[in-house]
Design a protein that fits this description.
With about 800 residues, the protein is of the alpha+beta class. The chain has 19 helices and 33 strands. It has 3 domains: about 160 residues, Aldehyde oxidase/xanthine dehydrogenase, molybdopterin binding domain (Aldehyde Oxidoreductase, domain 4, 2-Layer Sandwich), CATH 3.30.365; about 190 residues, Aldehyde oxidase/xanthine dehydrogenase, a/b hammerhead (Aldehyde Oxidoreductase, domain 3, Alpha-Beta Complex), CATH 3.90.1170; about 240 residues, Aldehyde oxidase/xanthine dehydrogenase, molybdopterin binding domain (Aldehyde Oxidoreductase, domain 4), CATH 3.30.365. The protein binds pterin cytosine dinucleotide (MCN) and CU(I)-S-MO(IV)(=O)OH cluster (CUN). Pterin cytosine dinucleotide binds next to helix 14, helix 15 and helix 17.
């Protein structure tokens, strides 16, 4: 459904594109739709070798010995590398993004199934994989810890005995909010509802798996790394710190990326191994993982065991919320998130509601499972937070016998409360929540749906209506509060307008499918009046872009989008001075105008007299004498340190039909009202929302990375780990409200993760609403037919 009509006031370029915000086809589609994208696996370098990783069959085992003789003797093999080889280079362990360490290749023990054990470089990947079969590893299997609760038992096997003196599997305790005040509010509450729930382990599963082509040039000493990468500059700094290579001798290139979804934020052992392989062989080396390796060994998401309690008055005024979380981080704490926040932004868990007190406590534990933790369009764990609060509000509605929409309307923050400081310390910038929920209810025809549901129930048919409302905080920093491994979360941006009036914008962030080459050109178009087709966006190459922290946590638009606006505004200001000099008037006498001919400084009251940006660009590079202190050329650069996060929000309604005989869920309708401030390109925003809604349907109904009791991963292919298709997803019905961010120069808020964050609770609330006649209060995701059917029989499965 089309929601945003193009503003008729936006002039069009000769190519028919808006000179500013509005719908336009993505520039990158010209190459993607013709199969002309250039991904890491497309990189071919002269003399390039290929490689493969031997992985552990056990979840937990001591390595007694590794014999690589036969593998090394296989014709076509150039190097066989083990943990011992790496230990000699001081590279057997690497730092994670959460100040832990992770084995690049195991030296002492393996700690999760499919952990990296040995690495072979050969003429081709096929030879390398054949050689893996010839490596003999003598393992001594150890008992595995799969269950996060069991991990804390005093007699649980200690997973991380690589750390001297460690006697348990506990990683951290972290809390936010006011425990005493929350206890007081709960003591005084008329109604309290408590529920245990699991946000299961899921995986981002991007279309392209992870990989690297590394080349350490033996002559120049320059390391060039092509990699699947959401944060090239941060990776460069980490390589420099870990490998001791001077940072200017490292170039990270992230070419086209086939989806990231958080999977490509961190550094994986395979990336480091490709670099080592190139150093050892003196040749370029490619490493590309396969689908199972991606699903079983790279960043998972969620795995949050949560016990929530909500307090309210009898008439439905929510007063308090608290939650205890056990966070399963797998074998190494490799979560990618701002350093100060070991539970990410989970403490935004009071969501969109006005309440008196809140408290959350999160404990992290090690288990014998793959590391990771923050990934899959999560907004740094806001996914888990929104799920918790939206399930709790629905459970409260059930307890109070109140309509869940009315309960939400009664408790949503009101517009006059913004900027709003939450009970756990967030400062929400702007919001008009009731308007968004009312719009979603109007699009859904909410009252009619409830009538239909009542009629169906009377006939024994199961229909559910599920609501969720979410608030996210996206756009990390400011850098004084947020850093990754000490790197403050601010981003640079450079803009050069060439003499003939076309421009190049250099960004620190890296697109993985979000359409940055289009939307950032539109930001420059909006601010400078250049046609977007005349603005080339350059990203994903550390030698050619300014430093910044990269694309995740929906931070690009809030941070680099602001940087792009400001850099363009600086050029506009300078252009004014140049135009004034050329027109021999005072700069104050000029006014800015964008027409179909582009942006123009013209004399107030005499629009005939003026200069377009293109003309000014040539003048600024020419012989015109500029005022004292004004440099020539139309170039500028900025570093943007955001004053606060931006807070997008939305109201979602999901309508499901459940087959009473089989438990099969059909998502019949999905209504999504999103507010991310003004939309640069409404078509791209809708695409982001569509994708995120599919993610949410997938997680709610079909996805789970599962393990057996020995720690064997039993969901390592797309046969078991299901991705939703058009068959499982309805035709989405989208709506929009626009509440600008007061601190972003263009009012923009991020949107890339909104729908993934907001939709799972809507689907789950809907299914549980459908099967409410069976007295089911709660069942954990994924709500597979079997799980729903068991819940209807009174015994929901525990995942
Ligand atoms: N946009 C807009 N108007 C706004 C806000 C955003 O037009 N008010 C546009 C942006 O210009 C950008 C896109 O929407 O083209 C997403 O912007 P933003 O919300 O800033 O998110 P990022 O660009 O930082 O992308 C990251 C986000 C994350 S964290 C995940 S995870 C995710 C997501 O993007 N991964 C994706 N969406 C994805 N979409 C694709 N196709 N592939 C992924 O890997
Ligand atoms: Cu958490 S997934 Mo996105 O931030 O890259």
């Amino acid at each position: 459904m089309t929601t945003t009509a193009d503003a008729p006031s936006v002039p069009r370029s000769a190519a028919g594109n808006p000179i500013g915000f509005g719908r336009m086809p993505r520039k990158e589609d010209a190459r993607f739709l013709r199969g002309q994208g250039h991904y890491v696996d497309d990189v071919r370098m002269p003399g390039m070798l290929e490689s493969a990783i031997l992985r552990s069959p056990y979840a937990h085992a001591r390595i007694r010995s590794i014999d690589t003789t036969a593998a090394a003797a296989l014709p076509g093999v150039h190097a066989v590398i083990t943990g011992q080889t790496l230990a000699g280079l001081n590279l057997a362990w690497m730092p994670t993004l959460s100040a832990d360490v992770q084995a690049v290749l195991a030296t002492d023990k393996v700690r999760f199934q499919h952990q990296e054990v040995a690495y072979v470089v050969a003429d081709t990947e096929y030879i390398a994989r054949d050689a893996l079969e010839l490596i003999e590893v003598d393992y001594e299997p150890l008992p595995a810890v799969v269950d996060a609760k069991r991990a804390l038992d005093p007699d649980a096997p200690v997973i991380r005995d690589d750390v001297d003196g460690r006697t348990d599997n506990h990683i951290f305790d972290w809390e936010a909010g006011d425990a005493a005040e929350t206890a007081r509010v709960f003591d005084a509450a008329e109604v309290v509802v408590t529920q245990e729930m699991l946000y299961p382990r899921v995986h981002p599963a991007p279309m392209e798996t992870c990989g690297t082509v590394a080349h350490m040039d033996p002559v120049t000493g320059k390391l060039t790394v092509y990699s699947t990468n959401q944060a090239p500059h941060a990776h460069r700094t980490i390589y420099a710190l870990v490998a001791g290579i001077p940072e200017h001798k490292i170039r990270i290139i992230s070419p086209d990326i086939g989806g990231g979804f958080g999977n490509k934020v961190g550094i994986y052992p395979g990336y480091v191994l490709a670099v080592v392989g190139s150093i050892v062989t003196g040749r370029p080396v490619k490493w590309m993982e396969d689908r199972s390796e991606n699903l079983m060994a790279t960043s998972f998401a969620r795995d949050y065991h949560m016990t929530g309690s909500i307090a309210s008055t009898r008439d439905g005024k929510i007063t308090g919320l608290k939650v205890d979380v056990l966070a399963d981080h797998g074998a190494f704490n490799g979560t990618a998130q701002p350093t100060k926040f070991p539970a990410g932004f989970f403490h935004i868990f009071t969501g969109s509601y006005d309440l008196q007190a809140a408290h959350c406590k999160v404990s992290g534990v090690y288990t014998n499972k793959a590391p990771g933790g923050v990934a899959y369009a999560c907004s740094f764990r806001i996914t888990e937070a929104v799920y918790l609060v939206e399930r709790m509000v629905d459970l409260l509605a059930r307890e109070l016998d109140m309509d869940p929409a009315q309960l939400r309307l009664k408790n949503l923050l009101r517009p006059e409360q913004f900027p709003y400081t939450s009970k756990t310390g967030w400062e929400y910038d702007s919001g008009e929540y009731p308007r968004a929920l009312k719009l979603a209810m109007q699009i859904a025809g909410y009252d009619e749906l409830r009538k239909e549901q009542a009629e169906k129930r009377a006939r024994g048919e199961l229909m559910g209506i599920g609501i969720s409302f979410f608030t996210e905080g996206v756009g990390a920093g400011p850098k004084k509060h947020m850093d990754i491994l000490g790197l403050g979360m601010a981003d640079g941006c450079e803009l050069r307008v060439h003499p003939t009036g076309t421009a190049q914008l250099r960004l620190s962030v890296q697109s993985q499918g979000q359409g940055h080459e289009t939307t950032y050109a539109q930001i420059v178009a909006q601010e400078l009046g250049l046609p977007p087709e005349d603005v080339e966006v350059i990203h994903g190459d550390t030698d050619n872009t300014p430093f910044g922290l990269g694309t995740y946590g929906s931070r690009s638009t809030p941070v680099s989008g602001a940087a792009a606006a400001i850099v363009a505004q600086r050029i506009r200001t300078k252009a004014r001075i140049v135009a004034a000099a050329a027109l021999e008037v005072s700069a104050d006498d000029l006014e800015w105008q964008i027409t179909a001919a582009g942006g123009r400084w013209q004399v107030k009251g005499d629009p005939e007299q003026g200069k377009t940006i293109a003309e000014i660009a040539m003048l600024s590079h020419g012989t015109l004498e500029l005022p004292e202190g004004v440099e020539g050329h139309l170039d500028a650069s900025v570093v943007y340190d955001p004053p606060n996060l931006t807070y997008p929000f939305g109201a979602y309604i999901c309508v499901t039909d459940v087959d009473p005989g089989t438990g099969q869920v059909k998502v019949r309708r999905f209504i999504a009202v999103d507010d991310c401030g003004p939309r640069i390109n409404p078509m791209i925003v809708e695409g982001q929302v569509h994708g995120g809604l599919a993610d949410g349907i997938g997680m709610a109904l079909m996805q789970l990375i599962a393990f057996d009791a020995d720690g064997n991963c039993v969901g390592g292919s797309f046969m078991d780990y299901l991705l939703p298709t058009a068959l499982e997803c309805p035709s989405y019905e989208l709506g929009e409200t626009v509440t600008p961010s007061p601190h972003h120069p263009l009012g923009l808020k991020g949107v890339g993760e909104s729908a993934t964050v907001g939709s799972p609770p809507a689907v789950v609330n809907s299914v549980l609403d459908a099967i409410a006649p069976f007295g089911v209060r709660h069942a954990d995701m994924p709500l597979t037919p079997a799980n729903v059917w068991m819940a209807m029989q009174g015994t929901p499965m525990r995942t």
